[in-house]
Design brief:
alpha/beta; 2 domains; Rossmann fold; Arc Repressor Mutant, subunit A
């Protein structure tokens, strides 16, 4: 029996991938692709429809029409996708069962979330991102804490006093953070004050802060510093410019370069 037939989470992840690629696909086609019975595929599609990922029709399913905020997130998720996937694979090795994690929102975080949704690790994860919480909620090994607050439509993430107050009550092992821009002068930077404040508080309440930064982020200086260089313990990236590498070395920041994983 294949691992996908034994693992409904892995099978449903594959279903989502196939439907996203094809737009519309029949139950018969999905049975052939995943080597599963029609009854199994129909149960999986019903679960994915309930979670809001697909729309079922007669004999198959299609991609659910998305709202403008979700469309913007989907576009960002697909940019630099191989770099983000490489960063995710390198980051997974830093997480152990029993960890309490902070995860902010951002398209660089999403491949990691998809990997964590399939893991057997027992984790407690606090995040302001509604889409991240929804994906992780499918894994019974993961306890998800969705930070309350004011929901920003462009990111589907919360911020403000209520979210920050919840962060202050949690003692995390790791803060896994993405950003809008990065430099050795300003550290991890953000376009919105709410995002900068969330990242800053997560970093302060975690034993270790890990930045997930792909190459394009080094070319852009965002408006507000959230996590200064002095607060970063480890940086995971797909490609590190020489000038940035020198600055990180001087700051004693561990660098995990995942470039070889993209090939």
């Amino acid at each position: 029996m294949s691992s996908q037939k034994r693992n409904p989470l892995a099978r449903r992840q594959s279903l989502r991938h196939e439907i996203a690629l094809r737009g519309t696909v029949s139950v018969t086609e999905l049975c052939d692709i995943l080597d599963a019975s029609p009854a199994t595929i129909r149960r999986d599609l019903a679960a994915l429809e309930q979670d809001g990922f697909v729309s079922r029709g007669y004999g198959g399913a299609s991609v659910r029409p998305i709202r403008h905020a979700e469309e913007a997130l989907a576009i960002r998720e697909q940019s630099h996708i191989r770099a983000k996937q490489a960063i995710s694979r390198a980051t997974i090795g830093l997480i152990k069962s029993g960890d309490t994690l902070f995860l902010n929102d951002g398209s660089t975080i999403l491949p990691l979330i998809n990997d964590l949704a399939l893991t057997d690790l027992e984790l407690f994860i606090a995040t302001p991102a509604v889409n991240i919480a929804q994906i992780l909620a499918n894994n019974p090994n993961v306890t998800v804490c969705l930070l309350g607050g004011f929901l920003r439509q462009t990111s589907l993430a919360t911020d403000g006093h209520f979210a920050e107050a919840m962060i202050d009550q949690i003692n995390a092992d790791l803060a896994l953070l993405s950003c809008d821009g990065f430099s050795t002068t300003d550290g991890m930077c953000f376009s919105h004050a709410g995002d900068a404040s969330i990242a800053q508080r997560m970093s302060k309440k975690a034993t270790r802060t890990i930045g997930l930064v792909h190459r394009a982020k080094f070319d852009w200086r965002a408006r507000m510093t959230g996590v200064p260089l002095s607060s970063i313990d480890t940086l995971v990236t797909d490609d590190l410019p020489p000038d940035v590498e020198n600055g990180l070395t001087l700051a004693n920041i561990e660098v995990i370069e995942a470039k070889h994983l993209t090939s």
